[in-house]
Amino acid sequence: MKTIKTARLRLVPVTAANATLLWQVLQQPDLRVYQDLPDVDRAQFARVVGARPTRLSPGATGRFEWLLHYGRDESEALGWISLRISESTRDVAEIGYSVVSEHRGKGIASEAVAALIDEGFRRAQLREIRAYCLPENLSSRAVLHRNGFRDEATLTRGATVAGKPVDVIAHSLPRERWAALTENPQATRS
């Protein structure tokens, strides 16, 4: 995987070498409000990350993850973003992301999501990117809508958060919609 650069951000691939930084980010309790994050120790997490695929390409499967940083400063992680591609649907991925509380409301998630969408469609030749979000997570839903995702359905008890089943809204973004949005930047992304 490669580092992805935007106007303000660097999305740095998560590897065994920097997995500890992501593990520290994932320990923040406010990140667990809307997501079921892994509850493993630092060493276990580094082993899991070390076993992940390292090349995002057409037909690749697995979890691909990046840490979010401002510019060249990699000492502080602003959050993380990932694409998950399953064996059964190699041309469809699920995007997930989170920004730490002190950096929310600055457009970081929207900028990182746009960059990873573009990377997924271009580098991995995905046909569609999906996202799942709790109905009450209005900020995350706004990020998805700004980037062209549309609500597809509500999945009753479609996920687990803090050990409890929760409803989620399924969102989708086909390659064609993203291409139309990027060809016409004035188009409304909703």
Gist?
This protein has helices at residues 19-26, 42-50, 108-123, 138-146, 175-183, and strands at residues 4-5, 9-13, 62-70, 79-85, 92-99, 128-133, 150-161, 164-174. The protein has 190 residues and is an alpha+beta fold.
Structural commentary:
The protein contains five helices and eight strands; from the N terminus they run E-E-H-H-E-E-E-H-E-H-E-E-H. By secondary structure, it is an alpha+beta fold. It has an eight-stranded mixed beta sheet with strand order 1-2-3-4-5-6-8-7, with helices on both faces. Helix 1 packs across helix 2. The chain is globular, with a radius of gyration of 16 Å.
**What overall geometry do the principal axes of the alpha carbons give?**
globular
Share of helix among residues? 25-40%
Q: What is the CA-CA span between the terminal residues?
A: 30 Å
Fourth CATH level, the homologous superfamily: Gcn5-related N-acetyltransferase (GNAT)
Level-1 CATH class name: Alpha Beta
Strand order of the largest sheet: 1-2-3-4-5-6-8-7
